[in-house]
Amino acid sequence: MYHCSQCGKSFTRQWHLHRHKLIHTGEKPYHCSLCEKSFTRQSGLRHHAYIHTGEKPYHCGQCGKSFTRQSHLKIHKRIHTGEKPYCCGQCGKSFTCQGHLKIHERIHTGEKPYHCGQCGKSFTCPSTLKIHERIHTGQKPYCCGQCGKSFTCQSNLKQHEHIHTGQKPYFCGQCGRSYTTSTSLRMHKCSNIKPSDFVS
Fold first, then answer.
1. Residue 136 φ then ψ, to 5°
2. Where does the C2H2-type domain lie (predicted)?
3. Which one in 28, 149, 153, 200 has a CA-CA gap of 20 to 30 Å to 94?
């Protein structure tokens, strides 16, 4: 067995240990010739190259969706099987991948490690920070094909498209009325609150 002097992790082969040590040294010997990005493993560089070529060699047999990594396909397949193997020890909520569980756990811990360089606001995950930063840059990359209106995130575009399709997926449990956006439903619920609701 070959042992890492830094963290004590053991390996059956010497080259596995050598590859592992790159994590501690920060060395990234595999370089992308197109964008200067570097990687600790050759497999990382190979998967990265798909970004430039547009190649997605791993296909879902159920819906035909394609992926650059086999691990991403494996996680995706759980949408079809309903498998959620990663469970929160605090509330019991389950997730398809470990990354989603880790982000969820920050709700319980209050940890917000991703900070906006412009205003200092903090977030639980990098994707939420990225969407927030568009407030400062004015970037709205999601555009409606019907009317040309643009949005900072895909979920806002999806809700907007309900205006054109007439779809009203947000239902009020009290009166049965339906709305095109979650904001409209929330406003409806607020308008129906009576002063007596606050009196015990």
1. -80, -40
2. 2-29, 30-57, 58-85, 86-113, 114-141, 142-169, 170-189
3. 153
